[in-house]
Amino acid sequence: MEDHLYTTTTQCKTWSFGPGTLSTLRQTTNAAGVRSIKRGWKRARVEASTANTPLATTPIPSNNTTPTPGPDPLSIPDPEPLTPSEELILVNYYMLRLMAMSDIFSFPSSVKATACIFLSRFHLHHSVHSYHPKHLLTTILFLATKTENNYLSTAEFCKRIPKLTPEAVLKYEFKVAGGIGWDFEIRHPLRGADGGIMELLTALGTSNSDPGIQTLKEKLGQNPSRRVTDAAGRMKGYLTKEALVSDVYYHYTPPQIFLGALWLADKELAEAYIEWRFGENSTMGRPLKKKKKDKKGKERAIEDENTNEPKKPPALAPKLIPAVIACAEMMLKAQEYEKIPVDVLKRIDKKLHRCQNPQKFLGAGSPIGIGNDAPPKKQAEEAAPPPEKRRKTEEDLFGGSLR
Amino acid sequence: MSATNSPPTSATLPNATAIRRTLPFGNGNGNNTPLSAMVAESGSDVKLPNDDSDASDNDDPDDLNTRTKKKYTKDRKLGEGAYAVVNLGHRRATATEPAVPVAIKKIKVNTEFRDGITMDAIREVKYLRELHHPNIIALLDVFSSKNQNLCLVLEFLDSDLEMIIRDTSQTLSMGDIKSWMLMSLRGLWWCHKSFVIHRDIKPNNLLLAANGVLKLADFGLARSFADPKRHMTHQVITRWYRPPELFYGAKFYSSSVDIFSLGLVFCELMLRVPFLAGNTDLHQLELICQWLGTPTEENWPGVTTLPGYHEASGTPVKERGTDFFMNTFLAAGESGVELLMKMLRLDPRKRCSAREALDSKWFSQEPYPTQPANLPKKGGGKGIEKVGSDLKRKAGELFNTPDERENPVITRKKKHSAVVAPVPEEIENAPNEEMGSSDDEEMEYTNDEETENEDNEEVEPKNVDKPQAGSKTNPPPPPTRNTREL
After folding, report:
1. Which residues, other chains included, contact B230 with Cβ-Cβ below 8 Å and sequence gap of 6+?
2. Total Cβ atoms within 10 A of residue B45
3. Cβ–Cβ < 8 Å for A332, A242
4. Environment class of residue B176 by beta-carbon count within 10 Å: exposed (0-12), middle (13-18) or buried (19+)?
5. Could A36 and B57 be called an inter-chain contact, meaning their C-beta atoms sit closer than 8 Å?
6. Distances (CA, A) of A33 to A26, A372, B68
7. Which spans does this entry mark as compositional bias, Polar residues (chain B) (predicted)?
8. B86 is in an annotated binding site
9. CA–CA dist A238, A64 (Å, integer)
10. pLDDT tens column, A301-358
11. CATH number for the domain running over A15-46+80-180
């Protein structure tokens, strides 16, 4: 259902995945993160034991809250690493924080959405074990302001967030930019959605006797325009939250996501709209299309669909609707992330903290991952097979509705 | 130049190569395994279980960066400006592919711009990652050097259209001009189709490969089409190629700005000098009025409501018709003139689109467009250096060197005698602190209704309107009414 133009985008070529691939990818990333933790701890142990005169328990700076490694460092077990699904929970939690941060600045939704997708894409390939999202949020948001043409200076940017310095914002900019493969362009469903709503309102506003529009009006009851505007508001809500937190950007095209959000906002409206535009009796008049083009090509996604609609097409609707429903369901699932209790998050974060800071538990070694003073050089080894833990959970969360 | 003896690969990376996705994630060894396959691979791929080996994880962008960097060698410097250094380089030969020359554009850390990766670089990377077309320069890779300089690996192209235009020892046939116009329009069509406005079309951004193929370059000022009601800055496009609506401070404009610019390039190809070479913005607008016609409500409904509109001084000139164009550009022939007029309409809404331009009869009539390989070429080392400097030039700048600035290759315009010492380049890159305030002093339009949905575009206007010699002491912001000394 994507058009030719969309298939040339990096979003389609590099950042779209089949149902299984995404979870495999996350497991691989998780495994790499776990390995780096293991290595860090191993090094720390070696350091601890070489320096291990009985006095090696020299208190480590700032260990006030953590248990002092009184006992032999070797008797302390390796920390339990995060599972892929725990990583995802953490990333999504920080994504919600990122949205809130964007709202502080009242950035346009394109900036907010881009930032969220940057975060998600970054962590698709970089484990939170190595890159704690909390250190990246401001960097990502700032980068998104630049890529979305909403630039403001770091000085201005830092004013709004307490204790933030330009250095902190920029420190990981290259890492983030490289980590998302320099693909700064994100195709959001937002524009297509705006276009679709405009199209609906225009159609409903005309006194056109076009039978398609007439049916559309009939289906929408008393005050069709009002109904569309109301639905548009709710739809926007889905597009700027659920669509970002869920994985729909990896699995569906922008127009599908738009329709999915519309479906959630007002199912009947979405059905009627799809029927009108892509149904068996679609009577979409040419003149209307022509008019839209003149609006400086705003309706990217809609136009996308136009190209898919040759003169006498087999109706697209039967193919489209299942995709839209699946997409909508996937978005709905994302609401669970908001409901995750704080203590679960705390527990995960604590686990991560332990993983990343062997020095606090062993009395030697250095912090793992970025955000601490010295980003350590990680070394790799590919021996450890990826742990299969909790794979089920992940599939439940994200694999279920795909087909 | 070596059009004949350089290997054909040099500037003509086959499209497939150009589009290859080298980034994300660890295909540093040059294989292009699709991501999914790679993932499967790395899971099963058992390497030495050496715990402290230096082999890299997928996980680290630094490693990825290093691998990318290692794919290229740096040969020699082609040029250096305030904005970037361009080196000739090669992609190392692999088992399957020979070494390929590339241009490595290293964006300097701008001491004035303290906000990380500059907007020009962001834009250039953003759009070139997406736009793949035979008539658009290919971005092969991106990496950062050890000093956190951003390096763009670009397809290597060895000359530009400006060099051809200025090389008066060559005669350009109408078929040649047609061919270059055709290729420019194709590139532009693809940009516009992808919802990108280039915003800096001019001869030295139209680069030529060794095999004659023309490619649009320098996307440092490009942007996507704006959302409805979001403002765009009018401080774009090098002055000589800037359309009237931008001089009037239009906040909403479209891809037709590129068409106008390209129309002027068309003229320049025929005249061999810039058609409208104004010394200041005001002068430029006068030239437009004088040569193309004075914008009025009649020929351009709504023009008087543009924020920077002011009545032209001097006697109004009617928008030029076929007679004028036929007289001036006789060589283009009837259909060529028709196309040119459509590209240079004052009212942006009346200008043709790139697509319509491509449909022009002109291209299908004799003389047919010259085959790229048979196009005139400008030769040798000079060409390479020049393109090096084209690439490193800051978006919107016109001249590469102070020298060029003092002695521009324009013969038609009179020279100002008082040439003041050239400005050191840094000054031109002074940061533009207040973005929104880049209003053109000359325009003095009112700023009402400016607040809502302002699109904070960081386009440093002084580059566009680069204060030329003599402006050294002027505090940076806006583009000033000081004269470009020619």
Report:
1. B453, B454, B455
2. 9
3. yes
4. buried
5. yes
6. 10, 16, 22
7. 1-15
8. yes
9. 44
10. 444 444 444 445 567 888 889 999 999 999 999 888 888 888 999 999 999 988 888 8
11. 1.10.472.10
Contacts of B32 (CB under 8 A, 6+ apart): B20, B21, B22
Instruction: Give the residue extent of every domain in chain B.
Output: 62-155, 159-391
CA distance B279 to B99: 45
Cα radius of gyration (chain A) = 25
pLDDT score recorded for residue A268: 92
- Is B368 labelled a binding residue? no
**Above 50 in pLDDT, residue A124?**
yes
- Can you tell me whether residue B103 is helix, strand or coil? strand
Instruction: Report domain extents, chain A.
Output: 15-46+80-180, 189-284+316-336
Closest-CA residue in chain B for A155? B115
User: Are the Cβ atoms of B58 and A32 closer than 8 angstroms?
Assistant: yes
- Is B227 part of the annotated catalytic residue set? no
As a residue count, chain A comes to 403
Residue B167: count other Cβ atoms within 10 Å of its Cβ.
18
Question: CB-side exposure of A62: number of CA atoms within 13 Å?
Answer: 2
Q: What is the DSSP letter of B181?
A: H
Q: Among all residues of chain A, which has the CA nearest to that of B143?
A: A178
Q: How many CB atoms lie within 10 A of CB B161?
A: 22
Query: What phi, psi does B131 have (nearest 5°)?
Result: -90, 115
> What are the start-end ranges of the H helices in A51-172?
84-104, 109-125, 137-147, 154-159, 166-171
For residue range B202-240, what is the model confidence (pLDDT) as tens digits? 999 999 999 999 999 999 899 998 877 788 888 889 999
DSSP state of A279: S
**Closest C-alpha among B476, B439, B442 to residue B454:** B439
Which stretches of chain B score pLDDT less than 70?
1-62, 81-82, 110-111, 379-486
Interface touch B122/A184, C-beta < 8 Å: yes
Q: What is B62-155's CATH number?
A: 3.30.200.20
Given this chain, do its domains B62-155 and B159-391 carry the same CATH topology?
no
ipTM of this model?
0.78
